[in-house]
Amino acid sequence: MNHPVVISGTGLFTPPHAVSNAELVSSFNAHVSLFNAEHAAAIASGELQPLQESSVDFILKASGIKSRFLMDRVGVLDPRRMCPSLPERDNDSLSVQAEMAVAAAREALANAGRTAADIDMVLVAASNMQRPYPALAIEVQGALGIQGFGFDLNVACSSATFGIQTAVNAIQSGQARAVLMVNPEICSAHLNFRDRDSHFIFGDACTAVVLEREDLAQARETFAVIGTKLVTTFSNNIRNNFGFLNRTAPTDQEKADKLFVQQGRKVFKEVCPMVAEHIGAHLTEHGIETTAVKRFWLHQANLSMNQLIARRLLGRDATETEAPVILDRYANTSSAGSIIAFHLHRADLEPGALGIISSFGAGYSVGSVILAKRG
Ligand code: COA
After folding, report:
1. CA 338 – CA 324 distance, rounded (Å)
2. To pair with 268 at 20 to 30 A between CA atoms, which of 73, 106, 146, 239?
3. How far is the CA of 62 from the centre of ligand 1 (A)?
4. What is the pLDDT of residues 284-327, one digit of tens each?
5. 157 belongs to the catalytic site
């Protein structure tokens, strides 16, 4: 069996709380003042270096980010806490990531003209799962009343494209008629808001994608999956050491490496050429000229990164229509970013138009999905 596959629906959950760069910088700088005042004697004696302030201008220039949506802004903006406050829920309540996933999934299902009865497989693909088990995917499956099976997968910022390929394989082989793939990202919970180099990088969001057999699809607008291509190569330049073994280590359980850490410059230099080569090779494998691609739905981490990747591919700057930007409002939402771009920027494409979703990030990992718009 080799059933052709389409994306027939997408959904987006956006948290209710927006936080501007100015608000984030103000809280960061209040933390700096508090720290420097509390450690004034050690700083004066040269024992400690004073912390340096953050700046709105730097953030916009270095990243292109203006604002982000967070699951909780009060805890993040409190200079004595600088971490979202998300109360623990009892085991009988829907967990917070599942709640985001269900909201995005309902929109994707409606978009696809599908109900729970049409879905055979649920994937939760994200950078961080709030617990190891039971799998979030099974909780989402239960909450929506879906039969069949589900499991979680994590390839950091590339989780959605890896999830799409997993869904495509299951549909092509006849294991599933339709798959729901969701990306509930609470990046604010793994971000170190006290780290000047990265406190502005991430936001929270959840995306959902319905994929199904093309011959069964009923949605008016679908996107045929022409091909998927994934690659990984080990790197320590983006890393998070949080894990179940932390409590077994005799020391350092609270160290900053239990949150997101990165060598931003190295990531920039190493990942951009990798992504451009990956997309170029993928298009060549399918006999598609880069100039024939009408839209690049790229991972949304950094504006200059996306501009550089597009320039390498096209030999010129991409327009905002060709490579839509959502990171200005959403910041880096990890695996959800390229899917948000796809969700918000596809309606205007003509039938037959080609586009490519591409994610990239920790691992390193790169994924691409070539799509053709159906009528
Ligand atoms: N406010 C003001 N100045 C800051 C600052 C802040 N918040 N953070 C760093 N700076 C300063 C640094 O101290 C440094 O000063 P110096 O030149 O006097 O030493 C200068 O700004 C440049 O710092 P650098 O860390 O080299 O910035 P950058 O231009 O590389 O931008 C990133 C930082 C993170 C935005 C950028 O490297 C990036 O986006 N990399 C891509 C990786 C990524 O986004 N990964 C996410 C997972 S895919």
Report:
1. 9
2. 73
3. 6
4. 999 999 999 999 999 999 999 999 999 999 999 999 999 999 99
5. yes
